[in-house]
Amino acid sequence: MNYRAPSWLPGGHFQTIWPALYARRNLIPHPPYRRERWATPDADFVDVDWVDGPQNKALMVMFHGLEGSSGSHYARAFAAFAGANALSFAVAHFRGCSGELNLAPRAYHSGDHEEIGWILARFKKQHRGPIVAIGVSLGGNALLRWAQEAGTQAVQDVAAIAAVSAPIDLAAGGNAMGRGFNRLVYNRMFLNTMVPKALRKLDQYPGLFDKATLLQARDLHAFDNVFTAPLHGFRNTEDYWSRASAKPRLKDIALPALVLNARNDPFVPAWSLPSRREAGPQVTLWQPAAGGHVGFAQGGPPGHVRMLPETVGPWLLQFTNITRSFRHG
């Protein structure tokens, strides 16, 4: 990936915050999504937002990041790319992220590979053309974990995958989020939505966790310790971050996989990124010096955020039977 940040947007924080706040509101139109609700095997539901394209063309499936949705700036950017190129596009919402609280006594987490596998198998049954999958941040780590668990069977459902700004060393990312500017800004931003949703889940299932302990949580480590880890079968935060991290098993991925991380990502320390020797032969590593967290803005002010779909999209689609010149979204 040949990316250089614009001079008017210096540093990882600006390159993260500007796309998340400004691009969604001012630069990217809301896609013409069509929503489907899928019943899950555990009597819950998953909401999927679609931009329809021809059934014989490729489908791009996206798994969003922590507290993201089909309305996130990166989802809108990929939806625009798909629409401009007559591709189908779908955002599979993690539980509780589609605007309605889910039903089961669980939420979602960074290592939710079983959920990813069930969703991708459902897409395979529903779409006749080739499928590629993109995971962003938390969704990227979960998608990689699915590929690791699926092994050589992964290519039965998906032609290729990409993980964008994924915190594949969850302990490194989680500890970084608990310090300095990250703790004051990003950490607080996430907890502002995660804590109320957890309290609504407690209303559904009284006694599910200790309310007082949750209300004392001031960082993701504490939140995961009282909510995310125990609700999803982990002993504690350390057990969750260790077992759910994709980095230790990058050699187990048996289908084409792109792992894209900016080295100035505030959420993912550069020292924690994988080296070439830590990844298997099917894994491509892109680690540009700049880009922030799911940023990669380009152009003069106010700029645009087409860089991700216009580079990641063609990389994925080369592994399908589609050969074409791609149009801008």
Give an overview in words.
The chain has 329 residues and is α/β, with parallel strands linked by helices. The protein has two domains: 226 residues, Alpha/Beta hydrolase fold, catalytic domain (Rossmann fold), CATH 3.40.50.1820; 75 residues, no CATH class. Helix content is 38%, strand content 13%. It is built from ten helices and eight strands. The chain has an eight-stranded mixed β-sheet, sandwiched between helices. Helix 2 links the parallel strand 3 and strand 4. It is globular and about 50 Å long. The model has no long low-confidence stretch (mean pLDDT 95).
Strand order of the biggest β-sheet? 1-2-4-3-5-6-7-8
What is the residue-mean pLDDT, rounded to a whole number?
A: 95
Secondary structural class = alpha/beta
Distance between the termini: 19 Å
Low-confidence spans: pLDDT under 50, at least 5 residues? none
Count the strands? Answer: 8
User: In this structure, how is the largest beta sheet organized?
Assistant: 8 strands, mixed
Q: How many DSSP helices?
A: 10
Q: How many structural domains in the coordinates?
A: 2
Alpha carbon gyration radius: 19 Å
Percent helix range: 25-40%
Instruction: Estimate the strand proportion.
Output: 5-15%
Q: Which of globular, elongated, flat, extended, rod-shaped describes the shape?
A: globular
The CATH superfamily of the largest domain is Alpha/Beta hydrolase fold, catalytic domain
Topology order in helix (H) and strand (E) letters = HEEEHEHEHEHHHHHEEH
State the assembly state of the protein chains: single chain
CATH class of the largest domain: Alpha Beta
CATH architecture of the largest domain: 3-Layer(aba) Sandwich
Assign the CATH topology of the largest domain.
Answer: Rossmann fold
